[in-house]
Design goal:
Layout: H1 4-11, H2 24-30, H3 34-64, E1 69-76, E2 80-82, H4 89-92, E3 96-106, E4 114-120, H5 128-146, E5 152-157, H6 167-179, E6 184-189, H7 198-201, H8 218-221, E7 233-236, H9 245-252, E8 272-276, E9 279-286, E10 295-298, H10 329-340, H11 349-353
Parallel strand pairs: 1-5, 4-7, 5-6
Antiparallel strand pairs: 1-3, 2-3, 3-4, 6-8, 8-9, 9-10
Helix pairs in contact: 2-3, 5-6, 6-9
């Protein structure tokens, strides 16, 4: 049998290597002049070191994973335009934005489950509320399956402050450890420029959802998305599913500015966030993967209001949306045009006509 290398060389063909996002910090350094590089050298070396340490940390956690120490990474995929197909008129019309938030278990054999939380702009937005609700759904499911008070969960994600690196997500974690059978949650942020998996997967031609999505449904989404291993678990979310995490945060916490040493805490500087069932009035953080110890932030420190704070344990969550979200008038008109001209199959027409417009 001819070796692949010789075959590729002789016939001038090769396997396609998916592109990946470039780190802005590294590109900035590469594009700088020699004089500028000297000024940026220390900062750049520190950035490279942190990047390497985060990768090693992720590898170590993956090797350590077990039934009581579960590791997962998550990411929000690039917006999926709906409908999306080969019809030429689709290109010239505004389309509905569909969101896919995916949480993938990291296991030694690579056979962990993958949960895809799916919703569209008529049901929710794409911020901390929606991401936090999806994570609570995932955590509740894991706690129920494990059914052990010693369960510890580790998350890896990118550094997006608007979606998963903010006080609302920390409050959601504290709610989870207070109400589910979870001992602790660690959230480790990959260095800016690193993404868990979508920078590669989104460009694979085998990810057929991008070319054949006509309506938001498990049937239309869960077709041939994974060739081997466990199929994806697709969970459709509606406006009724999303929790008001801002209300949760306001009613249970006050301080996110100072740690117990009196130092200023900046969320953007955090590399690791940790919450524990034994410390529901605090969260812990590290600003570098090199740091051996955590620093603590007391959530009730420096409180000014005299109104009693609620506790995370047994807190009654509120729904953030009482009704479906309206779609922009121009977008709604374009979608109705596609329905009336039968560019969208009639079996999917009700999905679009049921949308509300501004």
């Amino acid at each position: 049998m001819r070796k692949p290398g010789k075959f590729n060389h002789k016939f001038n063909i090769a396997f396609f290597v998916p592109k990946k996002d470039h780190c802005q910090a590294c590109v900035t350094f590469e594009n700088s002049s020699e004089e500028e590089k000297k000024k940026l050298e220390d900062k750049h070396n520190s950035h490279i070191e942190e990047k390497q340490l985060s990768r090693e940390e992720k590898k170590t956690d993956k090797e350590r994973s077990s039934s009581l120490y579960q590791v997962a990474c998550f990411d929000l995929q690039a917006t999926l335009p709906t409908p999306n197909g080969q019809v030429s008129s689709f290109y010239y019309r505004s389309k509905l934005s569909t969101y896919n938030f995916t949480v993938a278990d990291l296991t030694q054999k690579g056979q962990g489950s993958v949960n895809c939380y799916l919703w569209h702009e008529g049901q929710g937005k794409r911020g901390a509320i929606e991401i936090g609700t999806s994570l609570l759904h995932y955590l509740k499911e894991k706690a129920a399956v494990c059914n052990n008070d010693n369960l510890e969960i580790v998350f890896y994600s990118d550094n997006c402050t608007g979606q998963q690196k903010n006080k609302f997500i920390i409050a959601a974690y504290l709610y989870a450890v207070a109400n589910y059978k979870i001992k602790a949650i660690n959230h480790k942020y990959l260095i800016t420029g690193q993404r868990p998996f979508f920078n590669r997967k989104e460009r694979q031609k085998g990810f057929k959802i991008r070319s054949h999505l006509y309506a938001i449904s498990v049937c239309s989404y869960n077709t041939n998305l994974k060739k081997t291993g466990k199929p994806y678990n697709v969970i459709e979310l509606s406006h009724e599913d999303f929790f008001d995490l801002k209300h949760l945060t306001e009613q249970t916490t006050v301080n996110f500015q100072k740690n117990t040493d009196g130092e200023t805490f900046k969320m953007a500087d955090a590399s690791v966030i940790r919450v524990e069932k034994s410390h529901l009035d605090s969260f812990f953080y590290k600003t570098s993967f090199k740091c051996p110890d955590f620093k603590e932030v007391k959530l009730i420190s420096g409180r000014r209001s005299r109104t009693p704070l609620s506790t995370f344990s047994g807190f009654e969550m509120k729904k953030v949306y009482s009704n479906p979200l309206p779609v922009a008038k121009k977008k709604y008109e374009d979608l109705m045009y596609l329905v009336k001209t039968n560019a969208i199959k009639k079996c999917h027409s009700y999905f679009y006509t049921s949308l509300s417009s501004e």
